[in-house]
Amino acid sequence: MSAPEKTSESAENNRGDKIFFAAFMTGIAAISFGIGAFVILAEVPPYQSMKNAWRAGTALWEQRTKYSSVERLDFWSPARTEKTGVTINKADKPQKGLTLYSSGDGPHAVLIDMDGNIVHEWRMPFSEIHDETSPIPNPQKDDFMHWHTAKMAPDGDLIVQYTAAGDTPYGYGMAKIDRNSKPVWKYLGTAHHDFSIAPDGRVYALTQEFRFNTYPNRKQLTPPRLDDFAVILSPEGKEIKRVSILDALINSSFANMVDFAPYFSNEDVLHTNTIQLITEETAQNFAKGKAGDVVLSFRDLGIIAVLDMDAEKVVWATRGPWLGQHDPDVLPNGDILLFDNQGQLADPQAGQSRILQIDPETNGITWEYKGTAEQKFDSNIRADQQRLANGNTLITESSGGRLFEVTPEGEIVWEFHNPIRRDDPDNPGQKLIPVVSQAERISDERAALYRDTDFTPTSTNGDTQ
Question: What is the CATH code for 76-459?
Answer without folding.
Answer: 2.120.10.30
